[in-house]
């Protein structure tokens, strides 16, 4: 049960995946990434997340919440989220999508959505 201060989260990603298919869902993730990223750096930084979070209805999140979001998805430890890290984080936040994630990832890789990604 969520407390008063916790956001009430309803997972719409499985419905989006069903309606949009793998390609469409990944394209929407990419659109979300583009909304949140620092366009001069090509990644989501704390500053860009804080500045743009209101576009996604997240304006009430504290700085600690925003830092936690970045830390949760930052696999390479650079303090920012690249496009791949952001998309993986979106899947991880949806337990129902995790069951289907291998299919969606393979489909996205075949379509070249992450062609510029380097580890």
TrEMBL record:
Name of the protein in its database record: Calcium-binding EF-hand family protein
Lineage: Eukaryota, Viridiplantae, Streptophyta, Embryophyta, Tracheophyta
Occurrences of domain EF-hand (ranges): 61-96
Gene3D superfamilies in UniProt: EF-hand
Originating organism: Forsythia ovata
One of the Pfam families matching this protein, by short name: EF-hand_8
Keyword Cell membrane found: no
Keyword terms, alphabetized: Calcium
Domain of life: Eukaryota
